[in-house]
Design brief:
Helices cover 32% and strands 16% of the residues. Strands 1, 2, 3, 4, 5, 6, 7, 8 and 9 form a nine-stranded mixed beta sheet that branches. Strand 4, helix 6 and strand 5 form a beta-alpha-beta unit. The chain has 271 residues and is an alpha/beta fold. The radius of gyration is 19 Å and the shape is globular.
């Protein structure tokens, strides 16, 4: 994505504050989908004073559009009071570990406990929440532990595997070489030799785990809705098109997401 920015600095070391003409007729966006922001974080620290995400939320009130917000920050709690008065449908929070040392190695966002606390606050407010476990690092991400920790404050659990492309691949391989050299053969098998058997094995393990825990386990389909207080549904978003024949996903017409935690948290809301 950096090639579209005209910035010489490395990705992650620059920021552009976005301004736009005020949206005076939000009703024109009825039935549309608005996603903030999969590539960049709409609740990074500068938002506390710039309030650009706050501005778009206010300007889109009454639009009846589906909104998605992806962030790793608990600054989204600032907007909870206004968001919870909309017909919210869910809030996913993203994390791939409960280990704060590993989390700190991976990003400079808020702690896992703060992300989980933000998720709980939305869930306690009656908002459907999702624990988005992404990216899953082979040999490092402890899926059962994270699910045990979050299952009482979420309605969905999303599982997404680590994808390595471009310069990021070298960064991760350098990290594994330095911190976890015993895992190098596994990473070489998965990401250089393109062997997918690890994800097939993990899929089988998670299916068994969910059966033992009494959790519904599905692939590539988060359209299933159950009563708010039911146990969460675990959704596998591994390389299903390569591992398992992709099921036909049934999509509802009004799935509205705010994703917080660059996806720890997603909130579903209609503006």
């Amino acid at each position: 994505m950096k090639r579209f920015t005209n910035h010489p600095e490395p990705w992650g070391e620059f920021i552009d504050v976005k301004f736009w003409p005020e949206i005076k007729h939000p009703e024109r966006y009825a039935g549309k989908e608005l996603f903030l922001c999969y590539v960049t974080d709409p609740y990074q620290p500068l938002e506390e004073t710039a309030c650009r995400t706050r501005a778009i939320l206010e300007q889109m009130q009454g639009s009846e559009c589906s909104l998605s917000i992806a962030t790793k920050s608990d600054l989204v709690l600032r907007d909870l009071d206004s968001l919870k008065h909309s017909p919210m449908r869910g809030y996913p929070g993203r994390s791939n570990t409960l280990d704060e040392d590993f989390r700190a190695d991976m990003d400079n966002a808020v702690s896992i406990e703060r992300r989980l606390a933000a998720m709980k606050a939305f869930h306690d407010a009656g908002v459907r929440t999702t624990c988005f476990i992404s990216p899953i690092f082979p040999g490092l991400t402890d899926l059962p532990s994270i699910i045990h920790r979050a299952k009482n404050q979420c309605n969905l659990v999303w599982l997404e595997n680590l994808n390595l492309r471009g310069g990021y691949k070298k960064t991760i391989f350098d990290y594994i070489t330095e911190k976890h050299p015993d895992l190098l053969p596994l990473y070489d098998t998965i990401y250089n030799k393109k062997e997918r058997s690890y994800w097939s094995m993990l899929d089988a393990q998670m299916r068994q785990f969910c059966q033992e825990e009494g959790l519904l386990y599905v692939q590539d389909d988060d359209s299933i809705k159950r009563p708010f207080n039911d146990p969460p549904i675990v959704v596998n978003y591994f390389f299903n098109e390569e591992i398992i024949p992709r099921p036909k996903c049934r999509r509802t017409g009004n799935q509205n997401y705010i994703v917080t935690c660059r996806k720890l948290e997603v909130v579903e809301v209609r503006l």
